[in-house]
Structure formats: structure tokens, C-alpha cells
């Protein structure tokens, strides 16, 4: 038996193991570690979470900082970006020195404390495969998400609206600008995404699916 987290992964794995049963079981979230936020903090605070020695995340934050963040600051000078994650490379640390408003924290005791202070969470991944746990954690915490096709892989976010999709600099600027200025849109994404996580992406419910495979 092979288990993967998205249909796209199942297609890829099927090329390598065409005669092996493949089951799609998504990643999940521990809701005790990522409780839903009590309020919308408003403001212009962006957040990215992920291991900062991983090439996929390094590429994502460098792309966003260099190509999107300055454009946002032209319209919203107060815009800030907090990059949270362990083992930041020199390339990532340099972003906080080059761009005013960017903070690189390194490892933190509780990621959710930073998520609850954010206006928008970003998942601007341009490579990598599989369902992104960071995106699920953003949604569980109630932070509106703007992500790429890679960042939102495996998730149904359009019907109902649970996140905004962006794959170019202009699309990121448009989506994030809309969220900065539209409190109701933020509330809609926050509530819809959390409901989806509670319904389909808790480890308790996913464990039952693994159990059924183990019993075959």
C-alpha cells in the first residue's frame, strides 16, 4: 500500500508503482496547537511559516520579499512581513537587512502566537509537491491565506471561498490588497477555512483512514 497526500502525488507515484494500490489521505492539523483566533487584528501584517533551510521555502520567501513586498509597500507603507521558522539561511536573514519591515524570527516557542497577530498568511511556493502543512495550520488558526497553486495543492478553496489564489507578483498584490482593505472578506476566508479544517483535516479523523488501510 502507498499513501500520498494529494491526487497529483497519486498520479506521480502511479508512474513509479503502477501495480501498487495508492490511497490519498491528506495531511492534518493538531487543533490543540492551532486554536482559532479570537479576533481579527486588522493592520497590514503578513506572515510566512516554514523551515528556513529548505530550498522550497527559501525560494518562496526570497521571491515574495524581492518581487511582491516592495510593490505592496508602495500602496501600504505600513506593510510588514514576519518570516517564522527554524534554521534560517544567510540568504533569508539578509532579507531583514535589505527590506525595511521584514523580520526573520528563527525558531519560536509557539507558532500560533505569531499567526494570531497576522492579517494575512502567505504560501508563495513555486516548487515542491504534496499538501502543505503550513497552509493547513494557517487555516486552522483563522488567518486568511493567499497562496500559489503549489501552496494550495490538494485543497478546494474556491467553492466556498476559503483562500485566495495567486501565482504572479501582480496577483499577489491584488489579492493581499483586497484582504488588507476588506474586513468582511477576511472574515469569510477565516471562517470557511476553519470549518473545512475541523471537518476534514484533523489527525483524529485521518488516523481512522490510516487504520482502515493497516487492517487490509
Top keywords for this entry?
6-stranded parallel beta sheet, 216 residues, single chain, alpha/beta, two-stranded parallel ribbon, 14% strand
Q: Quick one: biggest sheet?
A: 6 strands, parallel
Range of helix content: 40-55%
The residue-averaged pLDDT reads 96
Helix-strand string: EHEEHEHEHEHEEHHH
The rough form would be described as globular
Count the beta strands: 8
Number of helices: 8
Q: Strand portion, in percent?
A: 5-15%
Rg (C-alpha, Å):
17 Å
Strand order of the largest sheet: 5-4-3-6-7-8
Given helix and strand content, the structural type is alpha/beta
Give the terminus-to-terminus CA distance.
Answer: 9 Å
Description:
With 216 residues, the protein is α/β, with parallel strands linked by helices. Helices cover 45% and strands 14% of the residues. It has eight helices and eight strands. Strand 4 (80-84), helix 3 and strand 5 (102-106) form a beta-alpha-beta unit. The mean pLDDT is 96.
Amino acid at each position: 500500500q502507498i499513501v500520498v497526500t494529494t491526487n497529483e502525488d497519486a498520479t506521480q507515484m502511479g508512474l513509479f508503482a503502477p501495480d501498487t494500490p495508492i490511497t490519498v489521505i491528506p495531511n492534518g492539523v493538531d487543533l490543540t496547537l492551532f486554536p482559532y483566533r479570537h479576533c481579527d487584528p486588522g493592520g497590514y501584517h503578513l506572515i510566512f511559516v516554514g523551515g528556513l533551510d529548505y530550498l522550497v521555502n527559501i525560494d518562496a520567501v526570497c521571491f515574495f520579499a524581492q518581487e511582491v513586498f516592495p510593490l505592496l509597500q508602495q500602496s501600504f507603507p505600513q506593510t510588514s512581513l514576519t518570516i517564522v521558522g527554524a534554521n534560517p539561511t544567510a540568504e533569508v536573514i539578509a532579507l531583514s537587512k535589505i527590506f525595511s519591515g521584514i523580520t526573520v524570527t528563527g525558531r519560536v516557542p509557539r507558532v500560533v502566537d505569531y499567526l494570531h497577530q497576522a492579517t494575512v498568511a502567505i504560501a508563495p511556493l513555486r516548487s515542491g509537491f504534496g499538501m502543505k502543512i503550513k497552509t493547513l495550520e494557517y487555516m486552522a488558526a483563522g488567518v486568511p491565506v493567499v497562496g500559489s497553486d503549489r501552496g494550495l495543492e490538494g485543497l478546494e478553496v474556491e467553492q466556498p471561498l476559503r483562500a485566495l489564489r495567486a501565482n504572479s507578483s501582480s496577483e499577489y498584490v491584488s489579492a493581499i490588497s483586497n484582504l488588507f482593505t476588506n474586513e468582511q472578506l477576511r472574515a469569510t476566508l477565516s471562517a470557511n477555512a476553519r470549518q473545512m479544517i475541523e471537518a476534514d483535516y484533523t489527525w483524529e479523523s485521518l488516523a481512522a483512514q490510516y487504520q482502515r488501510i493497516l487492517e487490509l
